[in-house]
Every structure is written in C-alpha cells, then in structure tokens.
Design brief:
alpha+beta; four-stranded antiparallel β-sheet; 54% helix; elongated
Length: 159
C-alpha cells in the first residue's frame, strides 16, 4: 500500500510540475495578445474602411478591440485563460477553447474543441462596444483626425 501511495504522490508531483510548465509556455505565447494596444501600435491606424489592415486582421484581432483596455481585458478573459485539474488518473487542461486530457504517463488521450458561435459573440461584443462610454470617446477622437485628413486631401489635389 505504501509503495502505491509513493508512486501516486510522485506521479501527482510530476503532473503538477508539467502543468506549471504547460501554463508558463501558454502564458508566454499569449502575453502579447493580453496586453492592450494603443491606437498607434495596432489599433485603428492604418486600417481600411472595414477595420482591416493589409494582413486581414479585423476588429477582434488587434483592431478596435486593442484600442479600449476594458474590451481587451474582456476578450482575454473569455479566450486567453488556461486552467487544469486532476481527476482520477487523468490531467485535464483547459486552454482557450480546447480541453486536453492526459493519462498518467502524460500522453495525450483526447483533445476536444469547445465550439464558439462567432456570430453571436461578435454581436454581443458590438453591443457592448456601443454601450461603452470609453469606446464612444475613442471613436470621436478617431473621427476628428480622419475628417481632417479627408479635408486636407482635397486641398492637396487642388495644387
């Protein structure tokens, strides 16, 4: 009985060290995504009329979401977290929208993707942005330089 307990304790410690490693690697990969970006870094500057830059990134991928620290925090809270739990002899890791199941030898047993209705999420985020006073203020600030650029471009053409 004591041998089994020592083995179980050893496996549990190994799993916890492995889990900390997995979470650290995941956090390092998503660190840039969790930080709010200003307008000059990756916000609306350089975007087209539909909020897309040359790489095709839209509002959700560093576009207008990157402008508002509150919305950036909400998105990272919904999509960028990782957690783990041990049940029985299995380790379960929740990372983003995936659940990974590992056996006691840390071999991947099963990987499941949690389906997310992106149209529903986009609609919800748009409603939240419309009701956000910080977002409205930033959009007003963004419209002023855009209007000045449009007025300035007409003067340059008449030269």
């Amino acid at each position: 009985m004591k041998r089994y307990q020592k083995l179980s304790l050893g496996v549990l410690i190994f799993l916890m060290v492995f889990a900390v490693f997995v979470v650290a690697v995941y956090a390092a990969q998503t660190q840039d995504q969790d930080q709010p970006k200003g307008m000059m870094q990756d916000g609306m500057m350089g975007k087209g009329m539909q909020g897309q830059d040359m790489m095709g990134k839209g509002m959700m991928q560093g576009g207008m979401m990157g402008m508002c620290p509150m919305h950036s925090g909400m998105m990272s809270g919904m999509m960028g977290r990782a957690s783990l739990t041990v049940q029985g002899n299995y380790l379960y890791v929740l990372a983003g929208n995936k659940i990974l199941k590992y056996d006691p030898n840390l071999k991947l047993v099963r990987e499941t993707e949690i389906k997310i209705d992106m149209t529903k999420m986009t609609k919800m985020m748009n409603e939240m942005m419309e009701n956000c006073p910080m977002h409205k203020q930033m959009m007003q600030m963004m419209n002023k330089p855009m209007m000045n650029n449009m007025m300035g471009s007409g003067k340059e053409e008449s030269k």
